[in-house]
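Predict the 3D structure for this chain.
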Amino acid sequence: MMQLYFLCTGNSCRSQIAEGFAKKYAPSGWIIKSAGVEQHGLNKIAVSVMSENGIDISSNTSDLIDNDYLQSSDYVITLCGDAKDKCPMTPSSVKKVHWPLNDPAQANGTNEEILNIFRSTRDDIDALVYNFINKIK
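Done. Predicted structure below.
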């Protein structure tokens, strides 16, 4: 049984999106969670763009890193430099992967422009997660 942990700064967008796609693509029995170095709450736009892809993350919660889960994970995937820099030490058995993605919650512009940035980030994460899971399963 594989255990994955997706980490970003606030566990509001990128790591939530990654968790949603991983649960879609991973074989049954895999344990998949996400967390942040801080708790920023679940981003409503992230929920909306995931819904467009038929994935419901609306009941997810914004969680802080659980050290026990972190230490026992097979893979820890950081989705931003902040999470990579602040991720606690892990045993050598935990493989670390880093995907440096911009935070869509920091986007500026019209509502439509911001929505499109979230969609672009969602699509990038979709491809990364799909390829990653197919490589390790």
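Helices lie at 14-25, 44-52, 67-72, 81-86, 111-136.
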